[in-house]
Amino acid sequence: MSAEWFRDAVIYEIYPQSYADSNGDGIGDLRGVIDRLDYIASLGIDAIWFNPCFASPFFDAGYDVADYLRIAPRYGTNDDLVELVEKAGARGIRIFLDLVVGHTSIEHPWFQAELQAAGPSPEGDRYVWSEVEPAGWGIDLPGIPGWVKSPGPRPGWYLKNFYEEQPALNFGWVRTNPEQPWRDAIDAPGPMRNRAALQEILDFWLSRGVAGFRVDMAFSLVKDEVLSDGHAASAAIWRDLREWLDTAYPEAVLIPEGEEPRLGERLAFDADFALVISAPHASLFDDHFAGTLPWHLPREPFFAAEGQGSTDTFLATWNWLRSVDPDRPVIMATADHDFNRLRCGGRTPEQLGAALTFLFTWGSIPSLYYGDEIGMRYLPDMPNVEGAICNPSYNRAGCRTPMQWDDSVNAGFSTAAADQLYLPIDPDPLRPTVAGQDGIPGSTLTLVRDLLALRRATPALQGHAPTRVVHEGYPFAYVRGDSHLVAINPRRESAAVDLAEFAEATQVWGAGATIDAGRLTLDGFGYAILRR
């Protein structure tokens, strides 16, 4: 189903308001990205994934959409996006947009029309309304459906999907009940209007050259108290859309937030996404400096100097995914906009080599979060900008701070006054910058460029080649494509493993590695790639 290029791709996630400000208003924009395309290409990137760029009041950083067919004015215009698509394409880079379809902003014209109405729309409501507050679903927490009292002429309550300012779009309910009239059937007029609109949105941007979409909360469309049933019904909507895409845009790529439900049906999305906030990824990298994720037990991370972690949780999920579908791509991010950064807490630049070697050579599609290529830090105690603190246990703003380009004012991000910036710049005078690492041997930026160049030149290290684990502890060692061995030691103490099958191997990448008669020894934070 997926385009052949995608399986071996490297993605670069850009949080647009923090990347590059071209007009001096303190907020990043598309023109700023256009100006930096040569830099992005120099990393070895195949696709850029943008967080939401559509018109929005930005109560939740653009995940509250007010117009799906218009670029937010603070980022530029629709023509700017088309220019970006064309100029990125000339450099071999495709563009993915973040698509939020489970809910809109309260400022979306669809919601405002229903809010001002006296009752249900004769064409079918686009949102979920009840004249009285229903029992259940009354949970006032972000990310969990709950009922909100109507703030306008329309009486009653509406269902929110995340924040109260994000009313849930009506895609129907798995189970209907005559005594609960807000439960529209999946094929009722309101849900069918929204399904038609979703196809129109996809068509609008794909026709302008966008390569695909990362879909936020992709399986939250259809509601049901049994979450798995709602997820399954939502997946069916995406399967129908995939059938249309097969004809209209056969190369279009769809990426879900998380894992697509396995239902014995054709899968609609082109990959699964190993989310930073989910247990498998967190078990590797979450050092709890950015806060505590309340939905799974905290563990000592595997990538930590103390060496008290384990790969068990990660490998259990990976092996399950491979057993269900051995060829299914999985996206693994260095970090993302929703939690921490790769360099978080006590993790030092010296430790990034092992982490990046793993993330760029494991049998997955790497997603490099902007700034991780220079080792930008997660910054604690950042202000709550645009809904960054959605859970009291952690603050997402710390991973959303402006890109650090050079040592000029505001680290080259913007010419605006410091108090006008989207978020503060890292105040550390030794903060990493692109200019400070460009062309410098041993820098994180040089390591990323060289490692991605090696990946591009070596099919065995890309996404299509199989992955076979040969040692699960310290060092973590695995064979790619039966020709290359990758070994990483994320702890401070040295670690060794006997690998007779690679006794005569040649080292093609690494630091702090020695091999003697089939015994590979890695210094603390060492890493190596060997070729038979």
From TrEMBL:
Residues 13-400 form the Glycosyl hydrolase family 13 catalytic domain. The keyword Hydrolase applies. Keywords: Hydrolase. SUPFAM superfamilies: (Trans)glycosidases (SSF51445). One of its GO terms (molecular function) is hydrolase activity. The keyword tRNA-binding does not apply. Transmembrane segments: none annotated. InterPro entries: GH, GH13_cat_dom, O16G_dom_2. Gene3D superfamilies: Glycosidases, Oligo-1,6-glucosidase, Domain 2. It comes from the Bacteria. Belongs to the glycosyl hydrolase 13 family. This is Alpha-amylase family glycosyl hydrolase. The lineage of its organism: Bacteria, Bacillati, Actinomycetota, Actinomycetes, Micrococcales.
